Please model this.
Amino acid sequence: MRWLWVDRFTEFVSGSHASGIKNVSLDEEVVDEYCPGYPMLPLTLIIEGLAQLGGILVAEHFGFEKRVVLAKVGKAIYHRPARPGDQLKYFVRIEATQHDGATVSCTSHCDGTLQAEIEIMFAFLEEGRFTSGPLFNPGDLGAMLRLMSMFHVAVDADGNPLRHYTNI
Amino acid sequence: MALSQDEIFEKVQVALVDALGVDDDEVTREATLVGDLGAESIDFLDIVFKLEKSFGITIPREELSPEDILTNSQYVQDGVVTSDGMSELKRRMPWANLTEFEKNPRVQDFGNLLTAGDLCNYVESKVGE
Model:
């Protein structure tokens, strides 16, 4: 199963915030099978999309050297369902970073109205915890970020294009 | 203006309620974070983030989690903290009540040592800096 829950990055400012869009399509099996008769994108996958956006933001802040995993969802408020045809606009901001984790606050908007508010905490896996070595095969993370058009919009804190990473 | 002990407790209580999903009245000063409040290892990171934000302080990892002492053969023998190790723990964590732990200082019991009151004492030492 494919596991890309953001269609495209629309903004990425290193160490600060990122935006992206997710189009909800009836073509996605999960959309019509989650709640038969009432097609919708499950909130859990909206959280996953925001976690992908935020996890990449955090990972880049640490030079893609940390093994960033979703550790905790501190808050999740769901204002309205995401139906086929909706375009969700995701926004994620880094709230705090630590030696072994980070927190982000996230929103999802649809048609100009707030659709969901989520707070996520990421942890950085220590070497040997669950698995050793990188979480991605060589080149896979870079390919995923290119699919999501991240490097088209990503800038560093000074507004310059991101440096080229050779470790992703 | 310095925070009173009651104000510190109230903010610590909010942090623990949010992080651990427990009720207000479960968070007493005597409640242990692991045994009484059900904190798991990942929750400690969450608690650190919440305390940092709530009090505007920075919490270095080693201050709340002296793993380097508990895994150092200089301070631990046969799973028990030596007298040198206890001295080091007291030096590192003057805000923690180590009286009970010191009676039988097994490393495996250290994880269930900290109480909400200890956290309050720790925060008080940080906001006073």
